[in-house]
Design a protein that fits this description.
about 210 residues, alpha/beta, about 30% helix
């Protein structure tokens, strides 16, 4: 069984696992770990990948339970993300079809975990598949047998090929690719806005062991 952290607009490799694995657990009882996919995403720009981070309220130490981390109302991070989406994906084929409902979710949540999970569920519905996901009922020890623990190895600062060696970044059309080489394993938003309903075909072909 694959064990994942919650993630903010997780990368394509994360969704490829959601698509292919028969059962996924998402850790709901860990402590908050900043500077990870839990609150960070990467979008494509003409200058290359751009990191966007969610601001959370100050005072959350490393021992804060992930479900209790509240989104910050300061720093204007959400507005900055909206501008970045428009600037870099406004001309993609499917941006106008999806952005309004995505922004509604972004603007309606108060905690990081609930926002991430509502976004994940919504994006899976848009792409057209329903992963078999359940949440942990208590913190899962890294030494637990029968668990493939990717909570901290599928990480923006680590090589995805080490965490998910079966992941094969299948190239797809990227609007920014007209000015920049293909950028693999960006946020699922990059795939969704560029490919729309065909996103599911990219996920299907993104795992080497897929039949």
């Amino acid at each position: 069984m694959v064990l994942l952290s919650t993630a903010y607009f997780a990368p394509v490799a994360y969704y490829a696992l959601l698509f292919h694995e028969p059962e996924i657990m998402i850790e709901a009882n860990e402590n908050y770990n900043k500077q990870s996919y839990r609150n960070r995403m990467f979008i494509g720009t003409d200058q290359g990948p751009l990191a966007l981070s969610v601001n959370v309220e100050k005072g959350y130490a490393i021992k804060c339970p992930i479900r209790e981390v509240r989104l910050s109302g300061h720093g204007d991070w959400l507005h900055q993300h909206e501008i970045a989406f428009m600037s870099n994906y406004g001309s993609t084929p499917f941006y106008d079809y999806y952005i309004d409902d995505i922004l509604k979710i972004l603007n309606s949540e108060e905690t990081l975990f609930e926002m991430n999970e509502n976004l994940r569920q919504h994006i899976c519905r848009l792409i057209g598949f329903e992963p078999n996901v359940r949440y942990t009922t208590e913190y899962v020890s890294p030494e637990t047998e029968g668990i493939r623990d990717l909570r901290n190895t599928l990480h923006p600062k680590k090589d995805v090929s080490m965490a998910v060696p079966e992941f094969m970044a299948k190239p797809y059309y990227q609007v920014v690719g007209l000015k920049h080489p293909f950028m693999p394993n960006l946020s699922i938003l990059d795939l969704l806005f560029n490919m729309g309903p065909e996103s599911i075909l990219v996920l299907r072909d993104s795992i080497k062991t897929a039949k």
